[in-house]
Amino acid sequence: MGKLWRWILGYSDAAPAARTSVAAPAPLRDVIRDTPEAVPLAQLDERFHRFVLGLPDYAVDEPSLEERTLLRRLQLHSVQFDVRSLPRLPTVLPQLLRSLKADNVGGAQLSKLIGRDPVLVGEVMRVSRSIYYRTLHPIQSLQHAVVLLGQDGLRRVVTMHVMKPILHASAGMFGHVAGQRLWEHAERCAHACAYLGKSTSDPFEAYLAGIVCNTGTGAVVRLLDQEAPAEIGPLTGQFLAACARLGAQISLKAAQHWDLPANVLAALEERADGRTPPSSQLGRALACADTLTMTQVLCDHGLLPSGASPVGAQCEFFPAAMIERCQQDLQRQFREAEAQPD
């Protein structure tokens, strides 16, 4: 799959194995009503991961013996995690991505390739009709949509097409709800990271960093579905924080396996380290985008009051006015776009 990403980025060839687990009803979650508008990062992070796993709020912070035992098993699995176990990719992608590298490929040829994958057709049409690409006349054909998006836009759509099944690849006790919620975060984080990094980083590298940053979280969810006993309970904040760190480490492994650009790897490495604030421009954009995205997703689902803002070092890398514009852009791109018919 590393060569697949080389195609996306304009380098060079390859693809990976799906898995499933038994579906179970998602645990109920509590709606948080009396939350202050300024949300500390640790609190925001815990609420987001409870939301992803479908867990209620839980006041106990000290992990139980059962949780500590489970965490040791997860840590062992994460060290041995085989990135080749990530879901296999659609067969049309290699040829399409090769074509996107060529400057002389026309819209008709790209449309023909995209037309072989109905899901990708749907994504291209959906994005071309979004508020971002609003046109005077409705988009009526796939070829019109392809021309409107251009090669950069198509690279983003194809990247979403690659990542969505990877984040949706679990259907067990925790994964039953996690896939869609991780995807909500991924596409927003990619957009926010590209927005914040537009003056200091390559826009597509920033987009990539945002969309892959929670790949490892999806893998940890699948490990939880395999290892956690059914009676494990709502899980403590310390346990969830440890799982988030494992997820960041697996995300870095996956990105290295896919041969993503050096700047993306550096940003993900800073995120996986977590002991000090990121120093790279892309690492800072990713940290801030991740925080803003978690906030927006929780607000959209009524788990934070409308207008809540995160507080912490991640939000101090950029001027307050730029962060506010990024938040407004996220709201416009996703809340309004989702209200539009496909």
Automatic annotation (TrEMBL):
Q: Which domain of life is it from?
A: Bacteria
- Domain HDOD: where? 86-274
Q: Which InterPro entries does this chain map to?
A: HDOD, RNase_Y/CdgJ
Q: Which residues form a coiled coil?
A: none
> Which SUPFAM superfamilies does the UniProt record give?
HD-domain/PDEase-like
Record's protein name? HDOD domain-containing protein
